[in-house]
Input
Amino acid sequence: MGLMNLSDREKQAIGAIDSGALHDLVDQAIRSEQLGKLSNLPLYNCGEYVATKLRYFDQALAAYRIAKSAKKREEMLHSARKAGSDLTFAFGQMKQRLEVEERESQLFFIDDPTIAPFRLTQDMQVRVSYRWRRTIEDEWTAGSIIFKHKVQPRFDYRAIAQPKPKRSARKLAEDRETDLLREWEHLEQLAHWSVRDYFRAGHDGAGIPGEFEVRLGDGDHLNNFSANFWGRKANT
Output
């Protein structure tokens, strides 16, 4: 599952499962104390969110199955029911996401992010590519916007927390690279979400600029509004 879009495999798996049937099979699994026919559903292909909840449910059933005392079985039954409810809820969330994606893809589509640059510096750029059209009868128009961000130097609290032994030049470089990658990933998410929210608000793709310098919030850090090239302004 990408940041913006479900994979074809995930879409097919989600579409192949009936929510009502899933609910019935979860109840059946609790009664039989094992996954049973639930294992026949392509739940592991519905994304990591659903797959994780399925693993938790399987573990809860195993704990319920081996419980001996009445008190312990009651506790484990409660846990199994909770895990089953979490599984059906997670699937419902993915089902809803699929419906939203299918509806929105009729008028706009935003490409998922690419891999991070091989070498990151304080001067960062993230390109968001998209296509859009005003009505489903119109031809698609492709476009992109580059989000620019100059990372501000930050006070290194680790130097105080770890005064001895001193970190080597190699370790300092590795820490700096890790910090830059974390900042780039944050920028990447904000940039893609901003373009998505712009289209969701009903705006025209022709109004998206070719470049945008992000706005930094308190402490010269990125915040939830930093990449908003439209509407709300970042807190300063």
Summary: The chain has two domains: 8-104, 108-220. The helical segments are 8-15, 19-32, 48-66, 70-104, 158-161, 169-200. The longest helix spans residues 70-104. The beta strands are 108-110, 123-132, 141-150, 211-213.
